[in-house]
Predict the 3D structure of the following.
Amino acid sequence: MTHPDFDVIVFGATSFVGKILCRYLLDQFGTDGELRWAVAGRTRSKLESLHAMLGDAAAPLELLTADAADESALRRMCERTRVVISTVGPYALHGEPLVRVCAETGTDYCDITGEVQWVRRMIDRYERRAAESGARIANCCGFDSIPSDLGVFFLQRHARMRFGEPCVHVGMRVKKIRGGWSGGTVASMLNVIGELAADSALRKELANPYYLCPTDHSFSVRQPRHTFVARDADFESWTAPFVMSAVNTRIVHRSNALSRNAYGDAFRYDEAVLTGRGWKGRARATGLAAGVAGFGMAAALRPTRRLLEKLAPPPGTGPGAEARANGCFDLRFAGETASGEKLLARVTGDMDPGYGSTAKMLGQAGACMALDVAKGCKPGGFWTPATLFGERLLDRLQAHAGLTFELLDVGTQRDEALQ
Ligand SMILES: NC(=O)c1ccc[n+]([C@@H]2O[C@H](COP(=O)([O-])OP(=O)(O)OC[C@H]3O[C@@H](n4cnc5c(N)ncnc54)[C@H](OP(=O)(O)O)[C@@H]3O)[C@@H](O)[C@H]2O)c1
């Protein structure tokens, strides 16, 4: 594969996220810019509708058809590109053949799965093959888990520069989040919870915070857990569990392991949602925690899962353009080193996290893989966003994807809690 036709092929271009991503790539790179890209999906007529929707500027875009279960079609697609970006989910149902073909053909791959049990299976099955072929595989390149993974990466880099040591504990707190859900995301969440409900061994494995680390990792420190309502002394606020933390924490620990324990052997990391002070903050935390627990229980039981499936947005749908533009997120990372030095960072996004921002993060991850991270500089295998892209993606996200990464005065967290 010395001179493939494309740098990037978007597979699943007709998905809800895929369409937003294609619009973004067109706006960012056009069709004759530095990134040569094409779109692929299983249904020709849907690809043609997408093509028409993108307008005249998209006329030169090539449309490729492939079904996620058709390995020879996937192989033909992979032969034509350096990177495949996949939005075909639920990944646990449709994703494996493409990962296998990428690992076999040495094609780089990134996605936005949040299905950690599937990521673990893919690592176990294809890590060796990807290492041999040179395929770099980067899962979780959406809201889960780029802001968490790169937020910790950013904070730790500054901790080392300022104090000469990394933070031994980082707490990520969701200060603000505004967005919605698509049919594909709800389907993926219901599928994960369904798998967990049916498999007690998997439930036990998933409870391990080091679940995604290489099996020879050296971590044993007990991790903080936010299972219900709690008080956060640093932020002087009540907190509720954060629904994405089960994914993000696993990715952050994998990043630590893959970077030779750069955050330390005893690194602790946790995530929660800030709900404010006083009885109102406590009531909000209780409502949120009960909502998360209630959804989990309803999704675990077959009859209520069926009902949720019926109530969920249909596949291909999600928050509209206005809701995406009005969305945002604001995450705080409070770190403390072994000597007691403290550091605070903020990561923000200018659109809704799950779709507007996720599409931009995924697009820039794919571009970064194709244009910035040479094969010789990172070998094949399963990476995390922080370990594969690091600084290069952080710069791209700030320059082109509406994300900010900045340090704050440590006092800010209390001042803001008082507001
Ligand atoms: N990490 C994050 O932050 C994040 C954010 C948003 C979404 N997600 C994940 O991204 C995925 C996509 O979400 P979405 O809402 O965009 O989903 P969606 O609109 O339901 O789209 C699913 C896509 O999969 C395609 N597909 C299904 N079966 C296929 C097959 N056999 N062969 C080829 N293509 C097939 C569908 O093709 P057709 O169009 O032809 O039906 C469609 O394009 C989900 O897994 C979701 O959980 C993650």
Notes: Residues 12, 14-18, 41-43, 46, 67-69, 87-91, 94, 112, 114, 142-144, 182-185, 188, 315-316, 318, 354-355, 358 surround NAP (CB under 6 Å). Residues 278-300 form the longest helix (23 residues). Residues 304 and 324 are 29 Å apart (CA to CA).
